[in-house]
Design a protein that fits this description.
The structure holds two protein chains of two kinds.
Chain A: H1 2-7, H2 10-40, H3 44-58, H4 62-76, H5 85-114, H6 118-126, H7 131-161, H8 173-183, H9 188-216
Helix pairs in contact in A: 2-3, 2-5, 2-8, 3-5, 4-5, 5-7, 6-7, 7-9, 8-9
Chain B: H1 3-6, H2 12-42, H3 48-51, H4 57-93, H5 98-113, H6 116-129, H7 138-164, H8 168-176, H9 181-211, H10 226-234, H11 237-268, H12 288-305
Classes of the chains: A mainly alpha, B mainly alpha.
């Protein structure tokens, strides 16, 4: 075990996993919020565009999106951010992960909005709040609380899905795992154990935190 | 309608404003599509000779159909094994025997928190190193192992929430006519829970089907993998990827619609149904309006239960 840690930089690989997770989480939150706004907007066309985005992305394999971001966007169409190929792949992996998970973030936010009963909006308007006031004081706070659990689940799934970035050669945990397996096939079980426990450590706190928060902030109805 | 919570019914002025924003939006979308097509065309991806191979028999017989069959084969084996795994450990989690319940919980939570790809790689490494199967079966076996362990854990959770969502009167009735807790679980609760989780199980098929594409990374010759051979054969990797994406989306969308049908059918018969096991990307993708209504319905049921 110690041998593996001495020979391979396991912590650096997990660092890359965390980096991919953090930046993709921010990216998917931004895109997902925009798509969610489109989907709940009163304009019919925007709703259709948002629904098209979600249905398309949710039914496409993530592996395909990641590979396409490299083969189609970077190699074929030549959208490159830096000369450094490794860094370019990292950026494209982050974009691919963000675009894919944005569909789930959108649905998480929308399901939060759906937890708010219509009576809340009616009550807010009937006590004389303006549209903006009822939105910021009554509806969105409740909607956000309803979205905590699905958002947390999306973050956990995103953390695990960063492993797919190895398909375009990003040096994160699953790539290192493959390398370690090839050089030490006799240690496959301990290698799997280290990687698995690493992911349990990364995802468990998120799960505990969202459960705690969603209970604490639950809207009593 | 989700919009009704946030917005009032529009009057004439708001409708005029909506028409204007829709027009601006339509122009933006058109500009985006035009830009994408321009960029694709600039590199010759839209040329007829890049797309005409998809009308040839060789493309389908030699590449797409074998790839699709491999994808479907891996998905089919995995969903059956995952259902068995889920049944065993789901019942384990509901067991009245402490150690069994505890062990099942650890197993289910562990396999749910490890990435599918990591499990596939470890299985692939183990099978190859120990010569478990013939070498050409190893990738398939590894894909099936990874998918079974993850989705089995999800199914176990589905089963548990299915039983948990049943009215308490069901188990009380079972116990009061003299059945043991285990008999109550087997004869009364499980049959209802399995029916309730049917739509979610069909939806889970979408997840399994999508995740078979991870097999590409461990050299399983599934549908996505064929883009490389197609690309090197006809020099059209980009059209190949786009075409394969469309195949995946169509199949998965059909499955999503099927899941919604099963659900509305169950609902018409007055059976309760359950949704999204894990939530997020691991969970099945519900189809629009039908499911939204169903969700409201399920929420109401849950409220009544408490």
């Amino acid at each position: 075990m110690g041998e593996l840690f001495a020979q391979y930089n396991i912590l650096a690989a997990f660092g890359m996993t965390i980096l991919l997770t953090v930046f993709s989480a921010i990216g998917s939150l931004v895109i997902g919020t925009v798509v969610a706004v489109l989907r709940v907007s009163p304009v019919g066309l925007f709703q259709k565009v948002g629904a098209f985005y979600v249905n398309t992305l949710r039914n496409t394999p993530l592996t395909l999106i990641i590979i396409a971001s490299n083969i189609v966007m970077a190699v074929n169409l030549g959208f490159n951010f830096t000369e450094d190929i490794a860094r370019n792949n990292i950026i494209w992996a982050i974009i691919g992960l963000s675009v894919y998970h944005a569909a789930f973030v959108c649905e998480a936010l929308r399901s939060g909005v759906n937890t708010v009963p219509v009576g809340q909006a009616e009550a807010a308007r009937s006590v004389g709040l303006t549209f903006g006031q009822s939105l910021t004081e009554v509806l969105l706070p409740q909607a956000f609380r309803g979205a905590i659990t699905p958002l947390g689940n999306t973050l956990i799934a995103l953390t695990k899905n960063t492993t797919v970035a190895t398909a375009i050669g990003v040096a994160e945990v699953s790539g290192l795992m493959k390398e370690m397996q090839e050089f030490r096939p006799d240690l496959i079980v301990p290698i799997f154990g280290i990687v698995a426990i690493g992911f349990v450590i990364l995802t468990l706190p998120v799960g505990l935190l969202t459960t705690h928060l969603s209970r604490r902030l639950a809207v009593k109805r | 309608m989700s919009a009704s919570v946030l917005f009032d019914a529009p009057g004439p002025r708001a409708r005029a404003r909506h028409r204007l924003t829709a027009l601006a939006g339509a122009l933006l979308v058109a500009a985006f599509v035009a830009f994408a097509l321009f960029k694709l065309g600039e590199r010759g991806n839209l040329a007829a000779d890049k797309w005409s191979p998809f009308a040839t028999g060789s493309m389908w017989v030699d590449y797409l159909i074998p790839g699709l069959l491999n994808t479907l084969k891996a998905a089919a084996i995995s969903i059956v094994l995952a259902a068995i795994f889920g049944l065993v450990f789901g019942m384990g989690r509901l067991s009245h025997n402490g150690p069994i319940r505890w062990l099942s919980t650890v197993v289910v939570e562990f396999f749910r928190s490890v990435p599918v790809l990591v499990m596939m790689m470890a299985a692939f490494g183990l099978y190859t190193f120990n010569n478990v199967f013939q070498s050409e079966i190893n990738p398939l076996a590894a894909v099936v192992t990874g998918l079974t362990l993850y989705n089995g854990a999800v199914v176990a959770e589905l089963l548990r929430s299915g039983v948990g969502g049943l009215p308490r009167g069901q188990s009380e009735a079972g116990l009061s006519i003299g059945l043991t807790p285990t008999q109550t679980l087997r004869a009364i609760l499980l049959p209802q829970a399995v029916t309730a989780m049917l739509p979610a199980l069909v939806g889970q098929l979408v997840v399994v089907l999508k995740d078979t594409a991870l097999g590409q990374i461990i050299t399983y010759p599934e549908l996505l993998n064929t883009y490389q051979q197609i690309g090197s054969n006809w020099g059209n990797p980009v059209p190949a990827i786009l075409f394969i994406a469309v195949i995946f989306i169509l199949i998965n969308y059909a499955l999503t619609v099927l899941a919604a049908r099963v659900e509305s059918r169950l609902r018409r018969r007055g059976r309760p149904t359950i949704h999204e096991a894990a939530g997020g990307p691991g969970a099945p993708a519900p189809v629009e309006d039908a499911t939204d209504e169903a969700r409201h319905h399920a929420d109401e049921e849950r409220l009544r239960g408490h």
